[in-house]
Design brief:
Elements: E1 8-11, H1 17-28, E2 32-37, H2 41-53, E3 58-62, H3 68-82, E4 87-90, H4 105-133, E5 137-142, H5 158-178, E6 183-190, H6 199-202, H7 205-214, H8 223-234, E7 245-248
Parallel strand pairs: 1-2, 1-4, 2-3, 4-5, 5-6, 6-7
Bound molecules: NADP nicotinamide-adenine-dinucleotide phosphate (NAP).
């Protein structure tokens, strides 16, 4: 079950945190994985080494997902090297913090450029390739419990909450359009996962304890919790699952 042998996966922001957890989970399930990163080459190369130790192919590629040309180059390189792309994990993202009335145009644009335009660039370039391959494909977008709808709002990070809400709508809309090509599109909405992005919360014991107290599973999430969800959505067994949001939050939104 959940065998991803010979599948070729691209994980954006795979050098650290959730992306790293997903990249390694996919490799453990049999996939070969391209690890995209923005600036942290050593971290990205360490993930590549870990994947190679599992007996899978891997390499790291630097690309800013908010810049179309860099994404085109990354996707073309992967297609030339490996022939095809079967799984895309759109994960690279930024959090920002600023009171709304003081938020600058630049702060707003930077978060939206990476968290929304970046997902658009990578999904579009990969979708072109997947459609041309005439094979089943999987696009998995990492949203958040901060996506709105049934999720939580993000005071002091309105740009971030806005971007994650957009990714849920993006995933639903794209799912309908790509289903005729055998491409499933879903979102995963993580709760609080211990990574660098949220170190400001998790390093504060009072904040972390109050979060855990409110979470039915009584712990913070780890990157591999999201990795397991991604393996499922990438698998053949998830063939009938598209256009949905899988919340992986320890029950946080359920209470
Ligand atoms: P993280 O630890 O800060 O890692 C961010 C990753 O994104 C890094 O690999 C980074 O590359 C990459 N990245 C940043 N900007 C990029 C760009 N412009 N182009 C390409 N790559 C870029 O964050 P994380 O917590 O793992 O978050 C991953 C995703 O999960 C994000 O979309 C985030 O919104 C979402 N999420 C996180 C949580 C949480 O609690 N952690 C909860 C819900 C959703 P470098 O290493 O090279 O800098």
């Amino acid at each position: 079950m959940f065998d991803l042998k010979n599948r070729k996966a691209l994980v954006t922001g795979g050098s650290r945190g959730i992306g790293k957890g997903i990249a390694i989970s996919l490799a453990k399930a049999g996939a070969d994985v391209v690890v995209n990163y923005y600036s942290k080459v050593e971290e990205a190369e360490a993930v590549v080494s870990e994947i190679k130790k599992l007996g899978r192919q891997s390499y790291a590629v630097k690309a800013d997902v908010s810049i179309r040309e860099e994404v085109v180059k990354m996707v073309n390189e992967m297609t030339e090297k490996w022939g095809e792309i079967n799984i895309l994990i759109n994960n690279a993202g930024l959090l920002g913090a600023a009171p709304f009335t003081e938020m600058t145009e630049e702060e707003w644009q930077r978060v939206l450029n990476v968290n929304v335009n970046g997902y658009f660039h990578v999904a579009q370039e990969v979708a072109k390739q997947m459609v041309a391959q005439k094979k089943d494909g999987r696009i998995i977008n990492i949203a958040s419990i901060a996506s709105g709808q049934i999720g939580i709002g993000t005071p002091m990070s309105v740009h971030y909450g806005t971007s994650k809400g957009a990714i849920v709508a993006f995933s639903e809309s794209l799912a309908g359009e790509l289903a005729p090509y055998g491409i499933n599109v879903n979102a995963i909405a993580p709760g609080l996962i211990e990574t660098d992005m949220v170190a400001g919360f998790t390093s504060n014991k009072t904040v972390l304890d109050s979060f855990i107290a409110r979470t039915p599973k009584k712990r913070a999430g780890q990157p591999e919790d999201i990795g397991y969800a991604a393996v499922y959505l990438a698998s053949d067994e998830a063939d009938y699952v598209t256009g949905t949001v899988l919340y992986v939050d320890g029950g946080y939104l359920a209470v």
